[in-house]
Design a protein that fits this description.
This protein is an alpha+beta fold and 132 residues long. It is 39% helix and 23% strand. It is built from 5 helices and 5 strands, in the order ααβββααβαβ. β1 (43-49) and β2 (55-63) form a beta hairpin. The chain is globular and about 45 Å long. The two termini are 16 Å apart. 5% of the residues are buried.
């Protein structure tokens, strides 16, 4: 993606935010624009911590094949969520290891997978993953 396209994408996100566009709609538009500009995104997800005592975080998930954007709530304290989910995620692994990419073939012969979410991806028909 060239610099001008990146700037255009950032400006669109900012404009939607200033106009009060719902965050699910902003994220869906962002994911669609990435696809339109050559980034083959099948699934996008944002998760943020929450200050609520019973909700550890909230998230938005976009699925290209379903053209659907949904919200999620993660119950429990932020410490429980971090221990249970975040520290076992592929993204946490990439950040901690300072690696830029993660490749995984989702073949039966590669089971068990290092990250449990890979089973979910395989069930959705994915055969390989690349991330960050």
């Amino acid at each position: 993606m060239n610099r001008a396209t990146k700037i255009e994408l950032m400006q669109a996100v900012i404009e939607h935010g200033l106009n009060g566009t719902p965050r699910t709609q902003v994220f869906a538009e962002f994911c669609k624009r990435l696809n339109a500009n050559g980034i083959a995104l099948k699934r996008g997800q944002i998760v943020q911590p929450d200050l609520h005592p019973m909700i550890a975080g909230r998230g938005i998930r976009w699925l290209r094949d379903e053209d659907e954007t949904g919200t999620q709530e993660f119950k429990g304290t932020s410490e429980e969520f971090e221990a249970k989910n975040w520290r076992r995620s592929p993204l946490y692994h990439l950040i901690k290891s300072k690696e830029m990419t993660l490749w995984q073939r989702l073949n039966e012969s590669n089971r068990p997978f290092k990250f449990s979410v890979f089973d979910e991806f395989r069930e959705q028909g994915d055969h390989r993953l690349f991330g960050r």
